Amino acid sequence: MRQNKTTEPEITGGKEPTVKITSFNPLIVSKDPEGTIALFEALGFARKHTKDAMEEREDIVGVRMEDANGFNVDVVRSGRVDSSSPDFLTIRMNVNSLDEAREMLENRGFKPGSDVVCDATSRSVAMFAPSGFSISLVEHIKKD
Fold it and tell me: Which site among 71, 77, 85, 123 is 20 to 30 Å from 36 CA-CA?
């Protein structure tokens, strides 16, 4: 039987909606990201773009970095990370539909870590698996 191939990975299962993953990379959440950014710069990564003050919250700043091979890592400063807490790693997953991806993960036992965070170009939410690992879902807002 011939299989239809697509250029974007799809998550499917039973009667659930199809969610297309458009990007997938590590995301490091830190209260003091400058040292982490410097480490990745020493490894050959360059700052691709920076996002400041998401949803009018100045305590969130994100930096996307990329190396010569096209690998990406995001480093995010969050004022909501307790000063005594260590940095943590999550998986950033850009998707075509935040609502469908969130529903699919919730159907598998994931719980949201907070409300959806919105800015002019994206919506995101952290989702935590029953085992404790996390996925940061991100949907970019398409301009008409």
Answer: 123
